[in-house]
């Protein structure tokens, strides 16, 4: 596979995918570097799989990528796919057949420029044949499917037929791809300079031998033969309108120019020359004559020589040629002549007059002479004094010079002085008409120049606003940048950079709101933690040290970010631990001392007090365990002696022994409970006055 990088329809780079991975973005390390603010430093990745497939993945969170006109983040690619990265386009093609894509730009046809030709007289050449008709056109072959195998069918257009879009004035676009895009975007196949057109307005798709027009959801819609359509099959000759631009879809023969040589020619009428009566000077003066406007804005200097005598009239010549034709040719000739007459009737009156003026000048001059003889309410040239005649002749020559120098306003002013004295003089009225036409053309050129200058200034302002907004976005001054977006969209609706920036601003706003919510939650958590800290201090004052420690430890398990609170709690934990040790350690020391002195019962009691203060201490339980074994042995011995004394009826001795057991062992010892039961029985026995001792 090979990747071809385009910008505004121009091929910038071709890259063969030799490595397993290829990066695309603004970073210098990327294999394909795209210098566009809407593209991230590492925007996307092309990856070649072990099976030979090509995969695409968008890595950046910002900036969209479109695959064949649709948003995409990850996909397998094939030859012919197109990916859009901002103002860039990457096209996928196979190494064996590199893609060749052409894009044309359809500019609005400028109005013809009114230019002055040389003032030297020229001769009107014999006109070329006006119409040509093909007598035996070849029939157009139908489209056919060519099957390469039993499953897949590929379309193959006949060699002598090709689909085109005809924009008029010789501007055509041949449809060579299976799908072409039409719109204002420079990435389209057909680029329209039309403000009412969307960036990607519509598609023309080929499906075997059929072509379909599809609207891409444009604002102004797509018209087919005057009707708005979403998707419609095209027929040759259909008129398509996008915005203010109209063009036709046609199926034409590619060998038309070759067959054109076999056409027969039908001559057009000859245009007679201007008579000598319309010359602005005398016949013997070899001076320049005023140029006459020809059709379509061209200017020529017509010949003012006297016409030669013709042996036959124009109509006579045409009749002779008509009679010499075959019946079929006569029919075609008649159709062509009628079409030519219709076209002439449709022409602009001023331009028609300019084209036919040379041939009709003789007739006009005769009519003007007749009018001068008859009179129209004003003086004629013959009625003027010699001084007035010289004045008019001088003004006439001055007007002609001014006309040649394109000083049309001054020319019309001087001609007005002539017409204030006479209705007409020589060719003055015609010079007046062409001066007005020349003035109109110059004004049209000036309007066009102003329009282009305004467009240039608009583009400069647009570029400046985009650069300023981009700079503000880079500095994260989103509010200032957002204030420029309406100005940019006013100059260029659907601006891609503004669309991406709006997404970035929305994402940043959501991020700020999320941070505010997180901060609010942290503040609430800190307030609750401080309240729990105060409750733990109350437990500490009540000498409930371990309850206080448990509360302090629980506070530290929370995701706190208040360092002051964290340090305060840790400090208080250390303080409580010291307070516990201050109350516990004296009892431990006392227990050890009494244990060494053999006062085991008192030592056991001291260890018990230490354990009450610090239930988590290990030293006090160990001391109690050592002492308890010794005390239990003593209690067992005393208890046995008491039982023997009781069995012999020595109640006093038995009671004494039992009481010693209670004094020796702790209450949780079994012998303490047994001795207690014995004493209760002896007490009951003594109160009853029973002389007999209870049985053990």
What does this structure look like?
This protein has 696 residues and is an alpha+beta fold. It is 46% helix and 17% strand. The chain has 15 helices and 29 strands. A six-stranded antiparallel β-sheet has the order 2-1-11-10-7-8, with no helix packed on it. Strands 12-19-18-20-21-24 form a six-stranded mixed β-sheet, with no helix packed on it. A six-stranded antiparallel β-sheet has the order 17-16-26-25-22-23, with no helix packed on it. Helix 9 (496-541) packs parallel to helix 11 (563-596). Residues 97-157, 263-310, 347-363 and 368-376 have low confidence and may be disordered.
Q: How much of the residues is beta strand, in percent?
A: 15-25%
Strand order of the largest sheet: 2-1-11-10-7-8
Which structural class fits the helix and strand makeup? alpha+beta
Shape: elongated
- CA gyration radius, whole angstroms: 56 Å
Mean pLDDT: 77
Q: Span between N and C termini?
A: 108 Å
**Count of individual helical segments:** 15
Multimerization state: single chain
Q: Major beta sheet, specifics?
A: 6 strands, antiparallel
* Strands, total number: 29
The percent of residues in helical segments reads: 40-55%
Which segments are poorly predicted (pLDDT under 50) over 5 or more consecutive residues? 97-157, 263-310, 347-363, 368-376
């Amino acid at each position: 596979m090979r990747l071809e990088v385009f910008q505004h329809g121009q091929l910038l780079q071709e890259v063969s995918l030799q490595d397993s991975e290829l990066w695309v973005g603004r970073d210098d390390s990327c294999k394909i570097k795209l210098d566009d603010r809407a593209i991230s430093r590492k925007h996307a990745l092309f990856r070649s799989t072990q099976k030979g497939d090509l995969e695409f993945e968008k890595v950046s969170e910002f900036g969209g990528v479109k695959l064949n006109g649709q948003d995409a983040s990850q996909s397998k690619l094939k030859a012919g796919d197109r990916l859009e990265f901002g103002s860039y386009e990457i096209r996928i093609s196979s190494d064996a057949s590199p893609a060749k894509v052409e894009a044309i730009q359809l500019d609005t046809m400028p109005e013809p420029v009114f230019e002055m030709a040389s003032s030297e007289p020229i001769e009107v050449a014999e006109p070329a044949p006006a119409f040509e008709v093909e007598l035996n056109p070849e029939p157009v072959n139908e489209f056919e499917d060519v099957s390469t195998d039993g499953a897949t069918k590929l379309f193959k257009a006949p060699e002598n037929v090709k689909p085109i879009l005809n924009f008029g004035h010789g501007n055509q676009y041949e449809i060579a791809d299976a799908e072409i895009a039409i719109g204002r975007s420079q990435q389209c196949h057909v680029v329209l300079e039309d403000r009412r057109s969307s960036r990607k307005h519509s598609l023309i798709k080929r499906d075997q031998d059929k072509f379909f027009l599809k609207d891409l959801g444009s604002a102004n819609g797509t018209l087919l033969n005057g009707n708005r359509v979403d998707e419609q099959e095209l027929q040759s000759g259909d008129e398509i309108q996008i915005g203010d631009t109209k063009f036709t879809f046609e199926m034409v023969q590619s060998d038309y120019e070759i067959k054109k040589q076999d056409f027969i020619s039908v001559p057009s009428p000859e245009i007679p020359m201007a008579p000598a009566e319309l010359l602005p000077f005398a016949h013997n003066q070899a001076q320049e004559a005023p140029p006459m406007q020809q059709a379509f804005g061209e200017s020529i200097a017509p010949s003012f020589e006297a016409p030669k005598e013709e042996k036959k009239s124009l109509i006579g010549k045409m009749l002779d040629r008509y009679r010499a034709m075959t019946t079929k040719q006569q029919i075609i000739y008649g159709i062509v002549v009628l079409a030519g007459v219709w076209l002439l009737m449709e022409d602009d009156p001023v331009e028609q007059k300019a084209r036919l003026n040379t041939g009709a000048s003789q007739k006009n001059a005769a009519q003007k002479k007749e009018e001068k003889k008859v009179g129209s309410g004003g003086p004629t040239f013959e009625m003027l004094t010699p001084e007035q005649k010289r004045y008019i002749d001088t003004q006439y020559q001055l007007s002609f010079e001014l006309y040649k120098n394109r000083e049309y306003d001054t020319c019309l002013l001087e001609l007005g002085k002539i017409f204030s004295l006479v209705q007409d003089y020589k060719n003055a009225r015609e010079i007046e008409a062409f001066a007005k036409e020349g003035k109109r053309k110059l004004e049209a050129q000036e309007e066009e120049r102003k329009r282009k200058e305004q467009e240039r200034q608009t583009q400069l302002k647009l570029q400046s606003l985009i650069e300023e907004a981009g700079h503000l976005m880079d500095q994260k001054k989103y509010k200032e940048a957002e204030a420029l977006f309406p100005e940019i969209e006013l100059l260029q609706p659907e601006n891609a950079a503004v669309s991406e920036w709006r997404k970035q601003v929305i994402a940043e706003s959501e991020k700020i709101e999320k941070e505010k919510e997180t901060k609010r939650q942290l503040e609430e958590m800190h307030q609750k933690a401080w309240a729990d800290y105060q409750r733990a201090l109350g437990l500490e004052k009540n000498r409930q040290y371990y309850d206080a420690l448990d509360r302090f430890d629980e506070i530290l398990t929370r995701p706190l970010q208040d360092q002051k609170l964290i340090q305060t709690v840790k400090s208080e934990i250390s303080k409580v631990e010291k307070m516990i040790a201050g109350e516990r350690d004296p009892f431990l020391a006392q227990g050890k001392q009494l244990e060494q002195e053999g006062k085991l019962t008192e030592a056991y009691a001291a260890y018990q007090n230490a354990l009450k203060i610090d239930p988590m201490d290990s030293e006090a339980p160990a001391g109690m365990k050592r002492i308890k074994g010794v005390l239990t042995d003593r209690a067992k011995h005393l208890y046995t002696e008491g039982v023997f004394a009781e069995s012999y009826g020595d109640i006093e001795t038995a009671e004494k022994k039992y009481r010693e057991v209670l004094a020796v062992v702790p209450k949780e010892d079994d012998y303490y409970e047994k001795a207690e039961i014995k004493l209760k029985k002896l007490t009951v026995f003594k109160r009853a006055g029973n002389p007999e001792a209870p049985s053990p």
